[in-house]
């Protein structure tokens, strides 16, 4: 059995004639905290949807914990958590009912204590018994994250999870993710534009341009950037974008 938390090989996805993922390869090991960065429209969300089995790529392989998404989607999805898009939450259920539903899908007898602890850290506890339609955007975002992380799967995939979170909640989430990677060997893949936030706690960054991962910065390089007062991930990414002649989507 393949021990990688995630292995993507030769992923191709196009919308109409536009190729958004172009023979993309990526491997993530247990315990890695990887930031997926790239300009608007570079394909980050499409990539996350492919690896989570929401979109079936036109070609290529997705292995989650060694399980092939095409051959055993149920087994592969059981090994990953994907934060639920806030607009997709059911408006008439309470947060607790949503969590119970997800717990049962994961074959858990009840909402795990770790989820309730994270709810507390995110100041979500007092929303647990209120219906989703009464939530603010940030509160919906928190529930989406709690649902994605329930049961602490070995791979966690997050798309801009800090969007709409207040600073205390964003800090609590970062701490939680760092603890999961460091103490439980959880792998995290985080798509984000918040480079100044990400650079402080990630172990690797990969840059997606025009559907290909064109650059990556490993732990040693990120450490060097952190220790250089004149350097930042933002700056090196801007330079990398210029070097690749990348432009933002019009
Ligand atoms: N369902 C779809 N149908 C057609 N085109 C799509 C669809 N979803 C995404 N696209 C296009 O694919 C490209 C990549 O989109 P994607 O959302 O993956 O980029 P992204 O890197 O996540 O962007 P952002 O940083 O703005 O969130 C964009 O040009 C987008 O317009």
UniProtKB/TrEMBL annotation:
The keyword Nucleotide-binding applies. Keywords: ATP-binding, Nucleotide-binding, Transport. Residues 6-235 form the ABC transporter domain. PROSITE patterns: ABC_TRANSPORTER_2 (PS50893). InterPro entries: AAA+_ATPase, ABC_transporter-like_ATP-bd, ABC_Transporter_VariousFunc, P-loop_NTPase. One of its GO terms (molecular function) is ATP binding. SUPFAM superfamilies: P-loop containing nucleoside triphosphate hydrolases. CDD domains: ABC_DR_subfamily_A. This is ABC transporter ATP-binding protein.
């Amino acid at each position: 059995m393949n021990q990688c938390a995630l292995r993507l090989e030769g992923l191709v996805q196009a919308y109409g004639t536009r190729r958004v993922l172009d023979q993309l390869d990526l491997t993530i090991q247990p315990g890695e905290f990887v930031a997926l960065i790239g300009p608007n429209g570079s394909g980050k969300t499409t990539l996350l949807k492919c690896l989570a089995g929401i979109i079936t790529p036109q070609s290529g392989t997705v292995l989650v914990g060694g399980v092939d998404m095409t051959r055993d989607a149920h087994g592969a999805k059981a090994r990953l958590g994907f934060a639920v898009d806030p607009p997709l939450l059911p408006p008439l259920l309470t947060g607790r009912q949503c969590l119970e539903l997800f717990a049962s899908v994961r074959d858990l007898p009840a909402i795990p204590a770790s989820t309730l602890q994270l709810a507390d850290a995110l100041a979500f506890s007092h929303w647990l018994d209120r219906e989703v339609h009464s939530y603010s955007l940030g509160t919906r975002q928190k529930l989406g994250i709690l649902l994605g992380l329930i049961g602490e799967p070995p791979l966690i995939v997050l798309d801009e999870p800090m969007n709409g979170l207040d600073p205390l909640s964003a800090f609590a989430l970062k701490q939680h993710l760092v603890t999961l990677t460091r103490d439980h060997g959880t792998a995290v893949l985080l798509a984000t534009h918040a480079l100044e936030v990400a650079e402080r706690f990630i172990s690797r960054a990969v840059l997606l341009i025009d559907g290909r991962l064109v650059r990556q910065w490993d732990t040693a390089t990120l450490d060097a950037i952190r220790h250089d007062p004149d350097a930042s991930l933002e700056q090196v990414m801007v330079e990398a974008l210029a070097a690749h002649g990348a432009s933002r989507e019009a």
